[in-house]
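Q: Here's a chain of 391 amino acids. Please give me its 3D structure as tokens.
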Amino acid sequence: MTLQPSGQRRIFALDLPRSIERLPGNPYVVSSALEVLTAQAITSTVRYRASSQPGYRLQAGLSVARQQPWLALPAGSNPRSVAWARALRGSGAHALAPAAAIAAVLDHFHRAPFRYTLQPPLLGKHGVDDFLFTTQAGFCEHYAGSFVVLMRAMGIPARVVTGYQGGARSSDGASLTVRQSDAHAWSEVWLAGRGWVRVDPTSAVAPLRTERNLDAALPAVPSPLSAWRALAGLDGGASGAIAAWRQQWQQAEHAWSNWVLDTTPQRQRAMLDGLKNLPPTTLAGACAVLALLSAMAGALVWWRQARQGDPLDVLYAQFCRQQALRGYSRAPHEGPHGYAARLAAGKATPEAHASIAQFLAIYAAMKYGNANPDEQLRARRSLRRLLTQCR
């Protein structure tokens, strides 16, 4: 798995993960909801190996007491849905078995005029009632959530599960790319002797959502952008020119991740052994090319930094230009404290005076103090905000 930075703590695997490689310096725990959570947010690309067991039984022997959280419903909520579910299942000797009750609800989703949309109508206080009997339009979370309410009303333990469904396989079949647009919600029901069983009610309404991708599930809307969407491969197909280019780029990125993020000692030794067999002239030429590329990269970094300047000084220069327009130009010999004292005697609203004093105090502390990178980042954010208040 190559995981792009998300700013979150979740790492992923196929159901049901059997083992997940530890991330260096960022251990993980498995929560009670079976989420794999790292100790720190993932802020850079990481690569790890995971193995999964696709055939499994999860909590097949769950006791009656431990089933109760998955049967609970808020008191008085969605009364029409609860009454309909209980009537559908029946009671006593005529009650439907759990499997038959699940099939009956899925059949209702399939036969009733439900539709899949990312722009559903607004729902009221009893959202599931409104969705099931009035709007009948929504996306995967609407179907998964309402299905769980109906199951619990029937006395069948159920819960909503979120994750990813689908992805784009590379042309060589070596990798699968999963994007945020592949995020999905489905349901799980608990059945005696089988444990938690996955049920996806969205597939009863929009099977293309689970068979292909999100765009394929949405209804086609004629527009001038249709041709461009087809070209980009956003219409559910994989033949768009831009989609093909993007796939080539992702394959190159995947290969880079294999060699850079996943460089093992064995690969390093194999690479060194290969270099030993090169002719001296070829090896010297390769070293020269690498040295030249390194020098060019260093020069580019230096040029960009010199061109952009220190972000702190850039903000201070903007502040000085702003005050010069007000008639208070900074003298060449004037430091931030002396400049602050002179500006404090000038004409400005009390709010502007306070913002000016705070701006210069933060700038001086960051410029001449010993702040860590996080403190500097927060300071720059504060300076940008204060800059608009110093006029």
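Q: Can you summarize the key feature?
A: The first helix runs from residue 64 to 67.
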